[in-house]
Amino acid sequence: MRLSYKLAIPHILSLLHSSGAVMLSERDLPHVATTNYDFVIVGGGTAGNVVANRLTENPNFNVLVLEAGPSDAGVLALQVPFLCTTTTPQTLWDWNYTTVSQPGLNGALVGYPRGYVLGGTSSVNCLVYTRGSKADFDRYANFTGDEGWSWDNMLPYFKKSEKFTPPSDRHNTAGQFDPSVHGFDGLNSVSLPGAPTAIDDRFEAAIDQLGGEFTWNLDTNSGSPLGFGWSQAVIDGPSASRSSSSTGYLAREFLLRPNLHVLVNAQVSRVISERTRDGVPEFKTVEFRLNGGDTLFTASASKELILSAGATNTPQVLMNSGIGSASHLSEHGIPSIVDLPDVGENLFDHPIITLSWRVDSNMTYDDYKRNSALQDEALQTWKDTRQGVYANGISQHIGFVRVPDNSSIFVNATNPASGPGSPHFEIFVSNFLLGATPSEGNYLSISTILLTPGDNARGSVKLNSSDPFAIPLIDAGLLADDATDVALMREAVKSVLRLASAPAWGDYIIEAADSAQPGLNATDAQLDTFIRTNTRSAYHVVGTSSITRKGAEGGVVDPDFKLKKAAGLRIVDASVLPFVPAGHSQAATYALAERAADLIKATHSA
C-alpha cells in the first residue's frame, strides 16, 4: 500500500454504544438538549480535553465536549511522528486559515494552520515539546498579580500533565535529559528521539568546536533553557505514536466514563446569556451546528461554560456572542453584551525562518518524502516494530540562544526577553529539507524561531462578517516591531550560519539549497532582505483573550480564567497568555489547563 501524504479521513465515529464509549452522534442531539450538564466545553483541543478529563474524575460532574472538527481515530498521518509535516496545510484536519497581508513580510499572506480535529492543534503540530523559561512564568505572575502563574507553582502542573517515556529504540538516555524536572505519571506522553540519524555526531561535534553561544544544556525544559541538547517531543516512545490531548486525555478508558460525552463535527457559533447574576450577564448556553448544516442546536451547563476553542477561534466565538469591542461588533450588526475591547487583540506569535544546504550524503530523510517504495517500507517497519525513521519527528537536537544584554539592539529599544535567563531565539536541526521536497538531492535544514517579538509585534483576530461561521481576519503581526524584530532575527540567522560553518560540516555541506540564501559574509542589508522575504509563522499563537489583574480595565479574563464583567464562563486555552513564552506553546497550554481544572474543581467542591 502506498501511503498518501493527504490521507483520506475515515468516516467519523458514530455513537459507540457497543464499546461503551460515550462518543455522541447526530441521533443523540435530543439527548444533548435535555441532559443536565454541569459543564459544557467548547473545543476538544489541547486544553479542552485536559479540562474534560480532570472534571470527570469527579463522577458527580457531567461534562459535554463540543469539537468543531472530526475524530482523529484511525488516521495514520495523525499517529506517525514522521508524517507530522503532512497534517497541514490544506488538509481535512486543518482550519486552513490565511492571514491578512503582513507588512513585516513584504506584504505576504501567510498560511495559518490550526487543528480542525479532535485534539485540536496537538493532533496536527510538529510535536516539539518545550516549556519556555522560568522567567516567562514569573512574568505572568507579576503581570497578573497571581503567584499561581509563577514557575514554581506551574512546574507541578507541567509534571502532572507529562508522562516521560523511553524512546522507541530503547537507547540509553543517560545524559540526554534531567529526570528531576519531568513527570512520569501524566497523560501527555513525551520522549526523546526514537531513532539515530547520520547527522547526530556531526551536530554534537559542531557544538563542541564552536563554543560561544553554542553550549550544552542537559535539559532545556528545566526552566533554564539556554544552550543545546536533545529535542523532546510529544511522542509515546513504546508505541512510537503522536501523543495528543485526544490520545492521552480522551483515551478509551476515559471515554468509558458515563459522565463524559464528546460530540465531534459540532461547531459552536456563540455563547448565550439569558439572565444576569450579581449584576452582570451570565452565560450558560452554547449554540452550535452539526456537520456544517443549517440547523442550530443548543446545549446548556448548570455550573460553567468552558471556552477552549483556541487562540484564533475563542475570540471569534466571543465576538459573535456580543463580547468584545462594542465599536467592532457594531460594524457587523452584533449587539454588545459585554464591552471588552481587548477581545481578539494582543495576538503574539513566533516568526520562523529556515536555512537549508545540499549535502554530500544519501542518509538524509529526503528520499522518504519522495520515494513511495521507501515510504511503504518505513510504514511497515513502524507498524511491525514501532521503530525506524517513522518513529522520529522533525529534529533530534534543539537549542536556545540569548543575545547579549549590551547589544546595540537594546540601546534604543527595550529588551523583550522575560528575564536574564530567557533566550531570544531557538535553533533546531533537521535531517532533510523542510518544505517542498525536490525531485533529487539530499539536504540539511537549520531553522530558527524568534521567541521574543517586540511589544509592538502584536496582531489581532477580527470578525470578517456577521456570519458566525465565516473565516475570521487574522493578523499575525509578524516582524511588526521595527525596533527589535528584524534585528533579533538577523542575529538568529547569523547564529545559524555560524553553526553551519563549523568544521564538522566541512566535508558534508556542498552549497546553499537556495542561491539567494546569505552566507557568513553577508551584509546586514542582505540578511534583512532574506529575512523579510522568507520568514513565516511558527504558529505559536497566544494572547487574544489575555489575562490581566483582577479588576483591571484591560484584558479579557481574570487570573482564575473567568471572563471579566460576566458570570458562568471561563476561557481555558493559549489565548489567555498575555505574552508568548520563549518556547513552543503546547506545553504551556497543557500546564495551564491542568491548573484551570483544579481551580474549577475547587470552585464547585462544596
UniProtKB/TrEMBL annotation:
InterPro entries: FAD/NAD-bd_sf, GMC_OxRdtase, GMC_OxRdtase_N, GMC_OxRtase_C
Main location: secreted
Subcellular location field: Secreted
Subunit structure: Monomer.
Name this polypeptide is given: pyranose dehydrogenase (acceptor)
Reaction(s) the record says it catalyses: a pyranoside + acceptor = a pyranosid-3,4-diulose + reduced acceptor; pyranose + acceptor = pyranos-2-ulose + reduced acceptor; pyranose + acceptor = pyranos-3-ulose + reduced acceptor; a pyranoside + acceptor = a pyranosid-3-ulose + reduced acceptor
Segments forming domain Glucose-methanol-choline oxidoreductase N-terminal: 310-324
Cofactor section: FAD
Superkingdom as given in the UniProt entry: Eukaryota
PANTHER family assigned to the protein according to its UniProt record, in alphabetical order: CHOLINE DEHYDROGENASE, MITOCHONDRIAL, GLUCOSE-METHANOL-CHOLINE GMC OXIDOREDUCTASE
EC number: 1.1.99.29
GO cellular component: extracellular region
Keywords: FAD, Flavoprotein, Secreted, Signal
Segment forming the signal sequence: 1-21
Annotated FAD binding sites: V117, T121, N125, C126, L127, V128, V268
Active site residues per record: H540, H584
Enzyme class, UniProt record, top EC level: oxidoreductase
Annotated function: Catalyzes the single-oxidation or sequential double oxidation reaction of carbohydrates primarily at carbon-2 and/or carbon-3 with the concomitant reduction of the flavin. Accepts only a narrow range of electron acceptors such as substituted benzoquinones and complexed metal ions and reacts extremely slowly with O(2) as acceptor.
Organismal lineage: Eukaryota, Fungi, Dikarya, Basidiomycota, Agaricomycotina
Protein family (similarity comment): Belongs to the GMC oxidoreductase family.
